[in-house]
Amino acid sequence: MSLEQLLAWVPPGSPDERLAREINVEQLPSHVAVIMDGNGRWAAQRHLPRVEGHRAGIESVRDVVETSARLGIDVLTLYAFSIENWKRPRAEVNTLMLLLKRYIRLELKTLIDNNIQFHAIGRVEELAPDVRHELDLGIRQTERNTGMQFNIALNYGGRAEIVDAARRAMAAGIPPEALDERTFGGFLYTAGQPDPDLLIRTSGEMRVSNFLLWQIAYAEIWVTETLWPDFRRRHLLEAVLAYQKRDRRYGGIKPSPVALGAK
Fold first, then answer.
1. What is the DSSP code string of the chain?
2. Helices 90-113 and 129-142, axial angle in degrees (round to 10)
3. Which domains does the chain have, with CATH numbers?
4. What is the pLDDT along the chain (263 residues), one digit of tens a residue?
């Protein structure tokens, strides 16, 4: 994918086209992670059941996934269902799982047409058999795709991921003295993927909610008041543009012109 393919998809003369043309394709974030928040509030504002917010959020997922792929993002990770979400009412959980299955089934052709490789991260083995079946189908049908990698985080928790990685390292017989950050990273759910450069959170909440705790150590964080069901291509482009204006130092100090020998 490329900016040209994104522009071909964006309505000519629209605000989205203007934003897209401002993006520097040489400085795209390799990995964008998104905490999709605000579905319940979106529904409450419209005096609708919470599940209607989740239904409306599916369109946002569709728009963000396709926009990211067309823009040229290497990896996109969406936080869909946390370990803590099991505490929600059973009817809401059941609806979330139903929507997940429906999304995979209906969007599989789009994922294939856009050369997107689908993955699920988290304690997926604990999900119901019918949910695992749909996930496995999506993974198998897209495993040969070579474009953007799309991770959906399900039954996921950042602390749980670190614990699981530690257990895998021990099971692999890695001696403590040989376990450095790079080796440990190979046992995470996202092994082999770049860490997120950009973390987006919708709904204005200022917290990371136990999401990719190891991987977001140096991620740039962009928060919007927009609720997830209203999040669209424009907001993603705004986040990328904001990211490109950041001065990423990774804990270091940017050399001054004097230090560089400038006159």
1. --HHHHHHHSPTTSHHHHHHHH--GGG--SEEEEE---HHHHHHHTT--HHHHHHHHHHHHHHHHHHHHHHT-SEEEEEEEEGGGGGS-HHHHHHHHHHHHHHHHHHHHHHHHTTPEEEEESSGGGS-HHHHHHHHHHHHHHTT--S-EEEEEEEE-HHHHHHHHHHHHHHTT--GGG--HHHHHTTSTTTTSPPPSEEEE-TT----TTSSTTTTTT-EEEE-SS-GGG--HHHHHHHHHHHHTS---TTS-PPPTTTTT--
2. 10
3. 3-157+198-244 (3.40.1180.10)
4. 567 888 888 899 999 999 999 999 999 999 999 999 999 999 999 999 999 999 999 999 999 999 999 999 999 999 999 999 999 999 999 999 999 999 999 999 999 999 999 999 999 999 999 999 999 999 999 999 999 999 999 999 999 999 999 999 999 999 999 999 999 999 999 999 999 999 999 999 999 999 999 999 999 999 999 999 999 999 999 999 999 999 877 776 665 555 555 44
The residues carrying an active-site annotation are 37, 85
8 A C-beta contact, residue 160 and residue 83? yes
Say how far apart CA 70 and CA 76 lie, in whole Å.
12
